[in-house]
Design goal:
121 residues, alpha+beta, four-stranded antiparallel beta sheet, two-stranded antiparallel ribbon, 6 strands, elongated, disordered N terminus
């Protein structure tokens, strides 16, 4: 029984320490200054004030990718000249919005992110 309790404690401790990928990168900013954040991430796209009166630095990225598609030749109905027309079959939008909340001492106290393209920088 003691062995299982020890195993469970070690597993829980290890899970708490492991913060892979984007989540881990953001967690590493907690406790660091806003100057360090701006130096690494650049000027935020927006700075808002939350309900508690704290500054929130907001960074957002948006990109689109077009894949596939068809190309066909036709005749311009007005000029009678041949023209090529392309139609993409798929356009995808990728985005990520990351926010860092600053405490009274201007250090990062919290973070949040949302999107389908949040990746380590």
């Amino acid at each position: 029984m003691e062995r299982w309790l020890l195993f469970g404690a070690v597993l829980a401790f290890g899970a708490g320490c492991a913060a892979p990928g984007y989540e881990g990168q953001l967690q590493s900013w907690v406790g660091r200054t806003n100057a360090e954040l701006v130096n690494a991430w650049g000027e935020p796209g927006d700075v808002i004030v939350d309900q508690a009166g704290r500054s929130v630095f907001v960074y957002a990225t948006v990109r689109t990718e077009t894949s596939g598609g068809t190309r066909m030749s036709t005749t311009d109905p007005i000029t009678g000249q041949p023209i090529n027309v392309s139609k993409p079959s798929r356009v995808q939008t990728f985005w990520c919005k990351t926010s860092f909340t600053l405490g009274e001492d201007e250090t990062v106290v919290a973070y949040d992110y949302d999107g389908n393209d949040c990746q380590k920088r």
